[in-house]
């Protein structure tokens, strides 16, 4: 089996401390000077003390060899070295032929090994702990990434987001299992009605339609192609489904609710053998890049990142159950917004623009990519070599973004968008049916409308481009109306009753006091994260 790649620092063995060019050393005699001397042959696995290499006294500094250059304080390698089975080193760099160099006398071959307390990469190389204290096996001691592993920066992760922690006890049960129904109208202890809402864009809003349009067709500068905005009869709108999804995301953060379907693997497993492929060969229109690299004589990626089953078991998506055990039933969010085979009791109308859309110019944002699975939590290493698996032991939580100004994030990539400019006002309705007062209070809190004595508001965001400052909405409650008496959907002359502000605040307080329904730590964390200003240059 081909040994995995381990970069080492090229150089000659340091002479003995008590003499220049001591026994076993072929370094030329000369004055004692701290440093490393290398003509470019052999390899030195430099020992490390703390965060710096140990400088060997008595070594003569000489001219650098191939692939090396002198830097202040020592030598720095510019080539990639690999271990061969017999202990030799094979260097490879683009533009240079493959060459082999014998190992330095007296130095053991640098071989990877696994120890009970964690992975080790051989002499001179350490597995660095990350900011969360977990071991990340993809870095050398100098912070450079090993070939074959993900290109992770030794600096902090990008500082425009953080994670709202998950409740320690896992997902909780629905507060009123008997009321989780949509086939009949409940009166006693339940509420049915709607909220009149006004939305004002604090930053540009983009909800993609999935199509590309000409810029002149959407009122922008001619001669460009932009990512289209969702429209109804030619007018831009925020779809009801987008509003419901954004509200559910906020509601899940402040309640002990389940997680949605989790992508458990970061690298799909394909094979040139159809019997070993996870997908039928006939469904693959184009050959995966892994197989293309194999056909060209290059090796496929050897590292796969996956989420451990025990990390997501307490947060599995809910499914309706007739069992009396609450752990097998619905969580608060699924009971209110719906789950597989169960209709939700909350729904929106499309948010439509009120009046004219303010003037706008073209807008470009940076290219956005999918989340990195290896940042989801602490990592453990399983195996090494051709079948290396990095497993996420524990999930950090749900992602929430800091308050980002549009110009704080560089716009590398320049993706043009159709959008609703700042200052646009929209109107919508939030309908609810057979909800408890505490559940309705949680909905109002998730919209960021009302705060409690000890829990603050948080901004409401919708659409794409959240990492670069898009999607901020200021939600204003224009009125809350309740239906009373018989089923309002069967009564021809049913008239809703308005509710005063004190009653609405009381429902939010009732939600905050309900320890089974309200997750206060998540509420506080969400409020702190979303109200923190992003400082450009904090992260990568």
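Q: What amino acid sequence fits the structure above?
A:
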């Amino acid at each position: 089996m081909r040994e995995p790649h381990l970069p080492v620092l090229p150089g000659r063995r340091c002479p003995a401390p008590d003499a220049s060019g001591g026994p076993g050393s072929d370094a030329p005699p000369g004055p004692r000077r701290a440093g490393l001397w290398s003509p470019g042959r052999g390899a030195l696995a430099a020992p490390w003390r703390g965060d710096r290499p140990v400088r060997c006294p008595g070594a003569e500094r000489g001219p650098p060899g191939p692939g090396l250059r002198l830097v202040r304080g020592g030598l720095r390698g510019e080539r990639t070295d690999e271990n061969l089975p017999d202990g030799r080193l094979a260097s490879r760099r683009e533009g240079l032929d493959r060459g082999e160099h014998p190992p330095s006398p007296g130095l053991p071959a640098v071989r990877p090994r696994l120890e009970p307390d964690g992975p080790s990469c051989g002499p001179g190389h350490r597995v660095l702990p990350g900011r969360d204290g977990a071991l990340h096996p993809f870095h050398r001691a100098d912070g450079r990434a090993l070939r074959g592993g993900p290109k992770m920066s030794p600096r902090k992760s990008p500082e425009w987001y953080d994670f709202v922690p998950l409740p320690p006890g896992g997902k909780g049960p629905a507060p009123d299992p008997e009321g989780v129904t949509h086939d009949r109208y409940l009166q006693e202890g339940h509420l049915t009605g709607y909220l009149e809402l006004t939305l004002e864009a604090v930053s540009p809003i983009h909800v993609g339609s999935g199509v590309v349009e000409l810029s002149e067709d959407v009122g922008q500068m001619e001669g460009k192609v932009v990512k289209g905005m969702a429209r109804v009869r030619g007018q831009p709108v925020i779809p009801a489904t987008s509003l419901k999804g954004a509200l559910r995301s906020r509601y899940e953060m402040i309640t002990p609710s389940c997680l949605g379907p989790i992508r458990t693997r970061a690298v799909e497993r394909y094979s040139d053998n159809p019997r070993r492929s996870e997908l039928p060969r006939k469904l693959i229109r184009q050959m995966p890049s892994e197989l293309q690299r194999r056909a060209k004589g290059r090796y496929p990626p050897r590292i796969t990142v996956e989420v451990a089953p025990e990390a997501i078991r307490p947060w599995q998506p809910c499914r309706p159950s007739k069992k009396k055990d609450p752990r097998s039933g619905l969580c608060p969010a699924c009971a209110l917004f719906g789950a597989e085979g169960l209709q939700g009791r909350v729904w929106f109308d499309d948010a439509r623009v009120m009046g004219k859309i303010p003037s706008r110019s073209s807008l470009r944002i940076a290219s956005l990519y999918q989340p990195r699975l290896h940042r989801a939590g602490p990592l453990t290493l399983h195996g090494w070599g051709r079948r290396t698996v990095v497993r996420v032991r524990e999930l950090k939580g749900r992602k929430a973004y800091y308050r980002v100004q549009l110009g704080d994030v560089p716009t590398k990539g320049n993706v043009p968008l159709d959008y609703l400019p700042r200052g646009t006002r929209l109107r919508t309705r939030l309908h609810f049916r057979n909800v408890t007062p505490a559940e309705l209070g949680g909905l109002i809190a998730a919209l960021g409308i009302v705060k409690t004595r000890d829990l603050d508001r948080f901004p409401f965001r919708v659409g794409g481009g959240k990492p670069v400052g898009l999607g901020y909405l200021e939600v204003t409650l224009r009125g809350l109306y309740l239906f009373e008496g018989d089923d309002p959907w069967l009564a021809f002359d049913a008239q809703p009753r308005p509710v005063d502000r004190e009653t609405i605040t009381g429902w939010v307080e009732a939600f905050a006091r309900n320890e089974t329904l309200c997750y206060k730590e998540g509420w506080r964390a969400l409020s702190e994260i979303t109200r923190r200003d992003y400082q450009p240059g904090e992260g990568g």
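Q: And what stands out in the fold?
A: Residues 1-111 form one domain.
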